[in-house]
């Protein structure tokens, strides 16, 4: 394989295949978008990531598991099943969606369609209540499946825009900026929910309102349920900059022709995968370690709530600090990516996540690092505040800060790696395969956690099983080369 050279001049006369990035063109060789254009692209993460942070990780999922289902172990297993089914559907359809988009040319109409499907399902989570009177467990899980599918399909089209809008010299920065903005948005919303809806009436602090705003009833868990419609409204509002200011691809084939040609394109690409051996190796490695990263997002909050008995206020405080750390991780990860390269940044992030997972599951309310017992009844509280006042809770809390930084850095660098090595004429299709690599075995991580949790009746064992995926993915990345592929069908 040779690297793409059309985006800039070579470094030396005797080395024509070495790519030199430019701040005026993209890695595809086309003119880069304006600052407003690529910033608006990054801002789309600000619009959609709060759903992941508030619903999937820190607030709604733990509430659903512990209150709606009523059993943290069974709740973790059910969420694993829901994400397993969503992963299977995404794995089947995402590559075809990407190939169709490559032929139709435009991505933003597809993104708009997925937003319009997500928003009602997100808003419906408000009606998921314990006992009778709500939509019940099964409809809630169906909403979660629909949202997860639309979220990933939207990511295919959004991610595929990156190599066409970001300056070549700043592509890692732009990807990391998007991740950081997403976490800052989640942070702002969690702070608002905490101080305006969850804390009022529970603590006698002068700087906290005496009553929850908007008539929120905490006894009916409305402070947890509100995050569904809240993130839906947030998505609708802040998706507008992407739709208005980020340049889209030129109009290509009509929808029927795009579908026909797109399906043929996927078939031909799968046949030609030996030509794209390096990309295939990367996608296989990413497929495995990404399952672990997604598992952390799906089960991290559920695990903490079940093991330590944390409620909504605990989880909001935990999520606020984790999101701040994640925002830093996305920015630092993008900086490292531009300087060390995507491969080294990924290895650093995945390796760090593996070590912190081992540390995290070694801490429970009764022990530290597996071997040191802790008696909460006799131990002195670290402080008088009602939150995180035992040594195991504080250690787990601090461990989570590193977790958040490494996970977001891995996501940012993984996307940049795909943008660096995919053929410029096939970016959306390869980002469809990128989505496939993130979801083809996405059922495996949730299934493994759910099965291990149920088999051992232990959240700890189920959550710890994710370490297997990190180790395999890390080893696979060692065989990947950071170089751009050329299309097998391009005339050279």
Describe the structure.
The chain is mainly α. It has a single domain, classed as Growth Hormone, Chain: A (Up-down Bundle), CATH 1.20.1250. The protein contains 18 helices and 2 strands. Helix 12 packs antiparallel against helix 13 and helix 13 packs antiparallel against helix 18. The N and C termini lie close together (12 Å).
Key descriptive features of the protein:
two-stranded antiparallel sheet; single chain; Growth Hormone, Chain: A; mainly alpha
Summary, kept brief:
Helices cover 68% and strands 1% of the residues. The protein contains 18 helices and 2 strands. Residues 1-21 have low confidence and may be disordered.
Strand content: under 5%
Helix and strand element order: HHHHHHHHHHHHHEEHHHHH
Largest sheet: 2 strands, antiparallel
Share in helix: 55-70%
* CATH C-level name: Mainly Alpha
Question: So, CATH architecture?
Answer: Up-down Bundle
Number of helices: 18
Low-pLDDT parts are 1-21
Strands in their spatial order, largest beta sheet:
1-2
**What Rg do the Cα atoms give?**
23 Å
Task: Describe the SSE topology.
Elements: H1 35-58, H2 60-68, H3 72-104, H4 108-124, H5 137-165, H6 171-198, H7 222-225, H8 227-238, H9 240-245, H10 255-271, H11 277-308, H12 312-340, H13 342-361, E1 367-368, E2 372-373, H14 391-421, H15 427-439, H16 444-456, H17 459-464, H18 467-477
Antiparallel strand pairs: 1-2
Helix pairs in contact: 1-5, 1-6, 1-8, 1-11, 1-12, 2-3, 2-11, 3-5, 3-10, 3-11, 3-15, 3-16, 4-5, 4-8, 5-14, 5-15, 6-12, 6-14, 11-14, 11-15, 11-16, 11-18, 12-13, 12-14, 13-14, 13-18
